[in-house]
UniProtKB/TrEMBL annotation:
Keywords: DNA-binding, Transcription, Transcription regulation. This is DNA-binding transcriptional regulator, FadR family. It comes from Paracoccus alkenifer. The keyword Transport does not apply. Residues 5-73 form the HTH gntR-type domain. It comes from the Bacteria. GO terms for molecular function: DNA binding; DNA-binding transcription factor activity. Pfam families: FCD, GntR.
Length: 258
């Protein structure tokens, strides 16, 4: 059975066609989020994700307080990952592996290059995100992506940051947290992630690249293994999922440091 394209993909492809055809010339302002949402009968969130795809491709440029405009000199898309690939778990896992290879080094560079103010801002953002503890049914598994982007900014490598920003609309909404966390394990899950985050930030604050890389690798590998476990159980009866989720947290108590 043919899979439907995500709504954000449908919208972004339509907008891309208007730019390519010249309907929207370089420098032209795009309609507002509300106008595009009404035209395509989608939410503003879908419109924002569609525009993020165009921005990642270098086709549009946002201007603070003014709106989004067609780039004067659109750049060719540097990182192209087909949507049909993203709709399958094996390729989603491959994306996570790719992300891991970039972010581990970004954490080390951040530990070397961040300012004291940036280190403090990274910790503040981490604490803010980790304090939310939203309903797993209402958030994606990568709810902490802004935290990861803040570390990439501190790495002072624009290519790393641009690549991770490109990945955001492609990877963040792939799975909901409820897919990998049983309801009774929500508190344990959030506590574990906070502990992993804290180890990363501690390495950055200490100016210890090896510790920051090690902590980031542990964090992302754990995330990857949770998705792999979900993929392995995708064809198993629902009764097996709580047991699988529990196995990921064996020996872990809320508030413990990993």
């Amino acid at each position: 059975m043919t899979r439907r394209k995500p709504l954000s993909t449908v919208v972004s492809e339509s907008l891309r066609e208007r730019i390519a055809s010249g309907e929207w010339a370089p420098g032209a302002q795009l309609p507002t989020e509300a106008e595009l949402g009404a035209e395509f009968h989608v939410s503003r969130t879908v419109v924002r994700e569609a525009i993020a795809r165009l921005r990642s491709a270098g086709l549009v440029v946002p201007q603070q307080g003014r709106g989004v405009f067609v780039s004067e000199a659109p750049q060719p898309q540097s990182f192209s990952i087909p949507d049909e690939v993203l709709q399958t778990l094996p390729e989603t896992i491959a994306l996570l592996e790719l992300r891991l290879s970039v972010e581990v080094e970004a954490a080390g560079l951040c530990a070397e290059r961040r300012t004291d103010a940036e280190a403090a801002a990274i910790r503040a953002l981490m604490e803010q995100i980790d304090a939310m503890r939203a309903d797993p049914g209402a958030v994606p598994i990568h709810y902490d992506y802004d935290f990861h982007l803040s570390i990439a900014r501190g790495a002072r490598n624009e290519l790393m940051l641009s690549f991770l920003e490109y990945l955001r609309p492609l990877i963040v909404e792939r799975l909901q947290l409820r897919h990998i966390v049983a309801p009774e394990l929500t508190d344990s899950y959030y506590a574990r992630i906070h502990g992993e985050h804290d180890q990363i930030v501690s390495g950055i604050e200490a100016g210890n690249p090896a510790a920051a890389r090690r902590a980031m690798r542990t964090h992302l590998v754990n995330s990857l293994e949770r998705v792999r476990a979900f993929a392995a159980a995708a064809g198993v009866a629902g009764a097996g999922m709580p047991a699988l989720a529990r196995s990921l947290f064996t020996g872990f108590a809320p508030g413990s440091r990993q």
